[in-house]
């Protein structure tokens, strides 16, 4: 980590460069827009996977500081509490702890958790609180980048949310439903926004980089020779929900792909969350995709992207698809950002509220409705209405991107004081 400079500084938590490429897209969107709005800003990422993130860090102004859940929840929070309670120790704490040094020298902490403080995810509440509490202890403003929060009907979540959410400087709500939940809780520190990943810009090198790893003739009908390509992006989070309810998510997706094959469609099987070198499934859809690919009776006409790509490369690749089926939230964001008509299998309000911004919310359905027949029917309907859906995506995309980028202006105001 570089020594703190006298220039503007920002600390980020809740996102990453490795693993979940939705988190990477949010982080890299912040890096791009803050460079534009603030200028020479030094950024520190409090990282859940510091070694993996450091290996993929190509930003000279981004420092990676370890903050795995236990380290964050115990060590960093305890040191921040000591910083608050014992002012004479502050110079020592800043010197000994990179996390405390980053937080105390930053003008703002950006919390980029995608969904926080929501009913049904109480097991993550401790992490949601631990992510922002050190900044509150050291009196660094907390800016919660566009994310889903709520509902707040559960007693524990409601109590904890009422204590901590009002203490953020700004909460950017990621859609109408989240905004209504937050207003219902009585929050006043709200700004209606759009997911930060919609701000992600590509630099023009993506095609050549992807071509070194993937046979791009597949998308031109060369290798497959059949025409349309349907992108399919599974999610291990969705798998756990479906399987816990007695279903078999991998079998359903495999059967759907085989139905596309039987109708002469090419399929690109694209994991949007990949951790290279491990079979652990947290933030890693690659083992699930291998399972799905292995279940296919024939692999003809199926391109399996069996490696980790960057968030920009994934966005470009998704943009080459003619139609898309997403279970990963930020794979959906990328397909919408590339104006690819999409069917979404979701598990919370966070999917529908983003689709609402494009006037295509009817193309999302819940995991409780997922069957081979229902998925096939919804996809067939999308095929029939693809031109109308694409027109809506094209029409609404500029407004959504502008709303996303507006976060950088709000952050810049805090940084400049």
Distance between the termini: 25 Å
Q: Supply the helix-strand structural class.
A: alpha/beta
- Rounded mean pLDDT score: 95
Helix content, binned percent: 40-55%
Oligomer: single chain
Uncertain parts = none
Q: What's the count of strands?
A: 16
Major sheet characteristics: 8 strands, parallel
Strand content: 15-25%
Q: What is the overall silhouette?
A: globular
**Radius of gyration over C-alpha positions, nearest whole angstrom:** 21 Å
Q: Count the helices. How many?
A: 17
Report what the structure shows.
The protein has 417 residues and is an alpha/beta fold. Helix 1 crosses helix 17 (386-416). The model has no long low-confidence stretch (mean pLDDT 95). Helices cover 47% and strands 16% of the residues. Strand 8 (170-173), helix 8 (176-184) and strand 9 form a beta-alpha-beta unit. The chain is globular. The strands form three sheets. Strands 1, 3, 4, 5, 6, 7, 8 and 9 form an eight-stranded parallel beta sheet that branches. The chain is built from 17 helices and 16 strands.
């Amino acid at each position: 980590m570089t020594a703190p400079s006298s220039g503007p500084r920002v600390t980020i938590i809740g996102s990453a460069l490795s693993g979940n490429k939705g988190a990477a897209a949010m982080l890299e969107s912040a890096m791009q827009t803050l460079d534009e709005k603030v200028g020479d800003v030094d950024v520190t990422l409090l990282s859940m996977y510091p070694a993996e993130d450091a290996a993929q860090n190509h930003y000279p102004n981004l420092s990676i500081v370890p903050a795995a859940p236990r380290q964050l929840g115990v060590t960093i929070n305890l040191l921040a509490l000591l910083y608050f309670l014992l002012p004479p120790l502050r110079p020592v704490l800043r010197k000994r702890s990179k996390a405390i040094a980053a937080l105390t020298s930053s003008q703002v902490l950006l919390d980029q958790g995608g969904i926080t403080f929501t009913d049904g995810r109480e097991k993550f509440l401790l992490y949601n609180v631990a992510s922002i509490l050190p900044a509150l202890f050291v009196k660094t403003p907390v800016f919660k980048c566009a994310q889903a929060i709520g509902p707040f009907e559960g007693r524990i979540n409601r109590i904890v949310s009422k204590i901590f959410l009002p203490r953020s400087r700004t909460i950017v709500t990621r859609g109408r439903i989240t905004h209504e939940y937050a207003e219902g809780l009585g929050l006043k520190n709200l700004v209606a926004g759009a997911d930060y990943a919609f701000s992600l810009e590509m630099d023009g090198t993506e095609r050549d980089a992807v071509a070194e790893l993937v046979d791009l003739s597949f998308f031109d009908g060369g290798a497959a020779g059949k025409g349309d390509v349907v992108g399919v992006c599974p999610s291990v989070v969705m798998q756990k929900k479906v399987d816990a309810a007695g279903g078999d998510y991998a079998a359903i997706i495999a059967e759907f792909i085989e139905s596309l094959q039987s109708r002469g469609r090419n399929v690109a099987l694209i994991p949007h969350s990949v951790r290279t070198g491990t079979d652990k499934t947290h933030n890693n859809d690659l083992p699930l995709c291998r399972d799905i690919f292995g279940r296919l009776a024939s692999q003809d006409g199926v391109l399996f992207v069996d490696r980790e790509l960057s968030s920009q490369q994934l966005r470009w690749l998704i943009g080459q698809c003619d139609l898309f089926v997403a279970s990963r939230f930020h794979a959906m964001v990328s397909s919408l950002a590339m104006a690819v008509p999409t069917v979404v299998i979701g598990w919370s309000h966070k999917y529908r509220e983003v689709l609402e911004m494009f006037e295509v919310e009817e193309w999302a359905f819940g995991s409780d409705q997922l069957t081979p027949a229902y998925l096939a029917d919804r996809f067939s309907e999308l095929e029939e209405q693809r031109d109308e859906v694409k027109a809506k995506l094209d029409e609404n995309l500029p407004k959504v991107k502008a709303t996303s980028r507006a976060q950088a202006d709000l952050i810049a105001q805090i940084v400049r004081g």
